[in-house]
Amino acid sequence: MPVRPAVSWSSTLRLPKSSFPPRPLLADQGKYLKRCTDDLYEWQSHERSAQKPFVLHDGPPYANGSLHIGHALNKILKDIICRVKIQDGRRVVYVPGWDCHGLPIEIKALEQQRGNDSTGERQLDAVGVRAAARELATTTVKQQKKGFREWGVMGDWDKAWKTMDKSFEIKQLRVFQEMAKRGLIFRRFKPVYWSPSSRTALAEAELEYNEQHVSTAAYVKFSITEIPEKLRAKLGELKNIHAIVWTTTPWTLPANRAIAIHNELECSILKSGSDHFLVASSRVDAIKEACFAEVPLEIVVKSILGRELQGTKYINTLRGKKSQPQPLIHADFVSADSGSGIVHMAPGHGMDDYEVCTGLGIEAVAPVNDLGCFTESAFPDDPSALAGQPVLSGGSQAVLGILNDKVLATHKYKHKYPYDWRTKLPTIIRATEQWFADVGNVKENALRSLSDVKFIPDAGKSRLESFVKSRSEWCISRQRAWGVPIPALYNEDGVAVLTDESVAHIIATIEKRGIDAWWTDSPIEPAWIAPGLKGTYLRGKDTMDVWFDSGSSWTQTSGQADVYLEGTDQHRGWFQSSLLTHASASGNTYAPFKTLITHGFTLDQKGKKMSKSIGNVIAPGQIMDGSLLPPAKVKKKSSGPISQALGADALRLWAASSDYTRDVVVGQSVLSFNHTALLKYRMTIKMLLGSMHESARTAPRSKLDEIALLQLKNVMSEVKTAYDNYEFHKGVNAINKWIASDLSAFYLEAMKDRLYCGDGGGVLENIFIGLMKMLAPITPNLVEESWAHRPEWMTAEDQDHPGRRPFFEPITSPSSSTDQTIFTPALLRFLSITNTAVKSAQEEARAKKLIGSSLESSVLLSLPPGVQGYYDQLSDELASIFVVSKIEVIPYNEEPTNAVAWKFPAEVTWGDDAASQPWKLWVVPAEEYKCPRCWRFVAPVENELCGRCEEVVGDVK
After folding, report:
1. What is the pLDDT of residues 724-756, one digit of tens each?
2. CATH classification at residue 666
3. Enzyme class, one word (predicted)?
4. CA distance 113 to 133
5. Containing structural domain, residue 312
6. What is the DSSP annotation of 534-598?
7. How far apart are CA 947 and CA 357, in angstroms?
8. Which end of the chain has fewer CB within 10 Å, C or N?
9. Has residue 913 been placed in a domain?
10. Got the DSSP string for 811-826?
């Protein structure tokens, strides 16, 4: 054969060609975003309109501020679920919602109004407050909606609901009406959590607890004035007897109406000077140390049971000169674990105190106003002594000052204390007239309805159940203007009217006149009075708890929602209020949700909760624009810095790759890992797009192709299982592992020669479609962009979009020459561990600078009989699979001849199978010449083409 002159063979190669950019062109992202959100949602709604829907009911975000990273985690997880269900062939219904009422919005609106008032004198009435709050909420909803849509969250945005919508408010009022009809709504004067900083009652769900709160605690003596006859006989002539109580809230002492002790508690009487003191026997030493460290103290009566003290009375001097003796009573909750073992009871300022005292006919009083300041009735003998004094700042000291010598000791006490979760300031417990929902009568039904609910994670069930079990009443009234009014009327005596007829009439009037008319109409406007009511009635000004608002949102769906998904804090919030209102008013025995999913909080890289005050907050936009990442390395020819912005997909991949069932860390290391993975996706997709040829459909399929299809089938099955179980991070991990090992390092590496230099066959189209399906729920913008850059021959076919096709489709093999059943796990194991050993030995040769490309080497295998069969099944393709120029088998347990210039061995074992024989392989130099076209060392003559390349290119003149 004549020797050809040197020729450039690049024009004969099928090198990858694709318009797909290695990094997203941000100018194009808008059109891709629309296609994978609005267009996809509209398509599935129309095409599957006759199907039973999959409903993901939105837990409404609060419309009072900028979006944060917690919003991103929540909304993206919801969107992934919807996209997975579309791949299952379902019709998805996701209608976003917003929680728009409540104190934070009202306060923020008022602050903005004050900021716009240069004189600082403008005072808004209820109508003005509502107008300002509505404007703020409306603006915030628009801003948040824009942000959600930029994250690739699809939904029925045109039908998005808000709790301030008239239609929503009417449905909420009808839920209230149904509960009232069933006798589950009542009004009562009783203690509730009260926020002086917000001037309203709060529910348990609106509290957060400060573990570092410090109170002034005090030991105070009450003079006993009456002792039962039986006990008097036992005590003899003892005089000047005082009961010692210990309290961490001395400001509640003006409301004291009893002291309590447990019937079975053993008490003692101590003597100091001419005074005697009653305390629990087990607390004697503690009392000595706290109150009598400097004076003599002796025990004069060792043992008196609490039941013997029943009938004893004492005087609370704070009630004034006309005060009457008050009782010593039994209370189950009293113990001798702290203090004196004798408890001061203020039924107007304590939940337990109230239950015990009202059961005995003891009245509850709370001489504290809405601002948290004492009223004149706090100390009748000198009304000005306490009136106006804030109870939380100086109130305790003022009370102790009046008590003077009745205070035995004081000290600072650090303990857990309830704070208003909005203002971050301490609350008090204060008896006021409030509206309550009776939870006790419905919670058993509510708990039973959870038996058919799937919880993710499982611990969510016990957490939700514990919150429901601990409740008996729910304070649903708030003393603010921005909300849905409690539809009650009050007669001239202040007695509330709440009947089915009166509520129905009020709802009908709101439908006609609008909800603001409740505040704008004259106080005695007759249009609000139901027919049949005689006399003058005023409308109440209380509004409903915002948890009642959002808890009524199940009325926005028809039937049971398939999924509720929110943060773990909603077990005591929205999950619970939804469950309770549904059990109270729907008439159904099932929960409002079939599956309840909770996610954790977002933490910084050090595991700390994100906070603006700490300065560790990461905004979603910073993840999208890549500003948190180190600068990209700039190539010498680059005209400027490389943008790190990967758009919404970067944010979505972070959310999807997080194990959301626990608290989620977000920081530079996590984001860098996901950034690299996303760039790897793009690089892989660019390779696939540039290497897919229409001719591959009719080219014969190799064993390597069949292995790649089997690996694709396996990873898609693993990913689908993860997606179906809502374990998206496991799906992402499976995709990353498959791309790195099976696709990039194995198949694409082994296929390069065939793609560039051979017939261009293979199964890249199947792999591309499979990868698109796996990525579609996670990175939809990337999938849309990839699909837009598919080869022209695919575009001409008008194939269905991968995101709209069933996840699993049969992978047909019309040109397959291999039965996939031969690829047993053992055969694939042989292939994997042998390939790893070859690569290891090649690295040793490469380190010695004996080879560069792996094609510069060949492989010698010394196989035991039990393994020889695996080689025989793959022998015709093994060299191309391992990307070496030649593979040869030598007898088992023999060494290569000394004729080779160098050799690098590797030992191979099955690993866990101890019965299998190990075998050895050697990487050695390639024997023949390098083909100048394909670079394999299989040419018979230097500078000549190998036989395969000769056949492909023909004669070159």
Report:
1. 999 999 999 999 999 999 999 999 999 988 888
2. 1.10.730.10
3. ligase
4. 10
5. 215-414
6. -S--EE---EE-HHHHHHTGGGGSSS-EEEEEEEGGGGTTHHHHHHHHHHHHS--SS-SEEEEEE
7. 102
8. C
9. yes
10. ---TTB-S-GGG--HH
